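Colleagues,

Please find the record for the two-part complex below.
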Amino acid sequence: MSPAARIQIVEDQYVVAQDCERCLTQAGFECIGFATTATNAFDLAERERPDLILMDVRLASRIDGVDAAIAIFERLGIRSLFVSAHGDQVMREQARLARPLGWLNKPYTQAELVQAVRAAVAELEVEKKAQHEAFKADAAEATSRLHG
Amino acid sequence: MSHRDDDSHRMYREQSLPVTDTTRGVNEKLRSANRDLTAQIETLRRNGAELRNLVEGTEIGALFLDRDMRIRSYTQTVVAIFALGPADYGRPIGEIAHWLEKVDLVDLLADLGRALEQGMAVERSVRQRTGKHSYLMRILPYRTSEGAIEGVLITFVDVTAMAAVEEQQRLLVAELNHRVRNMLQVVIGLAHQTLRRSQSLLDFEPAFMGRMQALGRAYELLSHDGWSNVPMAQLLATQLDPFASEGNRYTGAGERVVIASAAALSLGLVLYELATNATKYGALSTAGGKIDVSWQLADGGSGSEEFVLLWQESGGPPVRPPGRSGFGTELVQRQLHYELNGTASMDFEPGGLRVTLAIPARHVVVESRS
């Protein structure tokens, strides 16, 4: 098992954010910090480079979590697991630009949160492995061409 | 008799016909038929005018198509929907259907076909492409007075206002749904945090229920005013009255300000935690203690204005700083910073606890300077 996944929490309510952190820490993940607005979320992600972001779609800022997640994915390549209190289909459609790692509906239990984050981390690991294999294959091909 | 003779004579001359009793009778009948016809035409014309007035008055658009789905006639309302002109008589419906949004031409022709062939009526919601008016479109068979289907009638009822109300209703329900789900997540968070700091379920119950009631009071206050702003004095009273209403145990003084909804929820919960702590350990735990709360807008440094609230306890038991701070204290110290970019400082002075809360002035609106 790789080292604990580093998670950034974007949530504008204190009690919810605290509860989330405690739950994830107990489950063995590392919480690298909180943000309540889109701008703070971007700055924190740029500075800390988390493995993934737990992103509430409604934030204390004018720009919502979906747009923040898209900007973060496009510029930093970091993906989000979205947390939402409503199942707006249009919003989900828009969020696809951020390559979501999943959707978690409020209200969620601790077990649901941990399960969703584990699934997201597993997906990231599969992706990373595939990238690694592709890189190795490319390298092998280049080497054989050199020698052949 | 002579009158009739003269009359007959004139007819004879005009029509160059032999005057007989038969022709005289026919003439009489013709004249009578003519009178009837004129009267009937007049009735028809009046009925037609009434119908036209009725149709235009109700603003229901009507488009009449012949058996080949070509435009036969239309009312004034339809002109606006399809931008019709005199040259459009006889034009196939397919050529003007693009003026409607949310209409597939194949589906439309199928509906029209069913109306024509099977006499089936159908209702569709459509929108006008340029004007953004919404219509209820009804497709009906056009029947002659004998009952034969001779074409299709399409009517348009403008439902724009209704559609706007429905949309608003949908948004309101979605927003309420969002807030309820969000609040449930806060409840779950409060339950976990309270449970973690409770020695037993006996500890947990009053602490948790107290927070639920505080949350409930804050929401109730917000819903009074349609989820807009909450007067500061009212916010304070809502959270303190349950603890200190008897014997004037607290005072509140400050400018007439209202607090924005999100900030009011946050501040309300903090005031509740302060009040419940005062009841357990502070000024409200003894008979002679009281709390003075005051607030004002002040310069927060670097040109930014702050809303500052001062909570001063006095007359209570000797003050000792808490050894292990509970969740309530943590919430007081950190929630305003986290949610509103504010600050909170707690000074355990010998005479009584003094708490200073400050939040950026953008969360507050001054009603009147006094």
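Chain B is about 50% helix and 25% strand.

Comments are welcome before we finalize the supplementary table.
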